[in-house]
Amino acid sequence: MKTYLVVKSAAGRDKERLLAVVGESDGRVLVCDGKERPIERPKPKNKKHLVFTGQCLNEEELNSNKSLRRALKRCEIKEDSSYV
Question: Is the C-alpha dihedral spanning 43, 57, 83, 66 positive or negative?
C-alpha cells in the first residue's frame, strides 16, 4: 500500500492550505487538494515552499477528489487540536 505525505503550503496563492503530495516531476513536487487542484491536474510546487506536517494519507483516501477533501479536512482538524 502506498502512502502520501500531507504538506502545508508556505508560499503562493494556496499559502496555509493543506495539500497531498502525489508525485514528483522535474525536481518539483506534485500536490493536489481535491478542490482547486484535483487529483487529475496536480500542481507542481517547489519543495522549499512546502512544510511537512508529519501526517500521511493512504491510497484509499486518494480514490476520488471528494475522499481527498475529507481526508485533508480531518488532517486540518488534527493539526488545529494539536496546538491546544
Answer: positive
| Rounded Cα gap, residues 79 and 43, in angstroms | 23
For 28, residues 6+ apart whose C-beta sits below 8 A from its C-beta are 44, 45, 46, 47
CATH at residue 62 = 2.30.30.30
Number of domains in the chain: 1
Asked if 24 and 62 touch (Cβ cutoff 8 Å), the reply is: no
Mean pLDDT (the chain) is 90
Q: How many CB atoms lie within 10 A of CB 41?
A: 9
